Amino acid sequence: MLLTYVTGKRHRRTCEGVLKWFKGKYLPRHHLEISVIHKSLKDEGVTGWCMVEGSTSKPRSFLLEIDSQLTEKNYSKTLLHELWHLYQHVKGLPQCEEEAYRMEDILYKELSDLNIKLS
Question: Of 38, 39, 40, 5, which Cα lies nearest the Cα of 19?
Fold first, then answer.
């Protein structure tokens, strides 16, 4: 089961499609609640964040913040990057920035190859 809450209209369709695909492929048996907040992160010097809400021992509720001013391609890559951090949390893996950067490119290419609509 996947419960989502997405703010903003600009990237909503892309966000919902990517969330559904990612969860179905990488975390199909997990019950997750994911809130995606689109906002300016310019002052923070990042394009996205992934935060656990509630229990950190068995995290199932997450807040993702994604910069709302990104191009479609950069938005999709950032969302995939933050979803990989979510995956690391759920699976109890260490948070590895290098792995998340590598996976954002792999996942983006996979979505592109599948012709999944990213905009």
Answer: 5
Residues 6 or more apart in contact with residue 111 via CB below 8 angstroms: 18, 21, 76, 80, 118
Judge whether 20 and 52 are in contact, CB under 8 Å. Answer: no
Angle at 18 between CA 113 and CA 40, to 5 degrees: 120
> Tens digit of pLDDT per residue, the chain (119 long)?
888 888 888 888 889 999 999 999 999 999 999 999 999 999 999 999 999 998 888 899 999 999 999 999 999 999 999 999 999 999 999 999 999 999 999 999 998 887 665 54
Residue 4 · residue 104 · CB < 8 Å: no
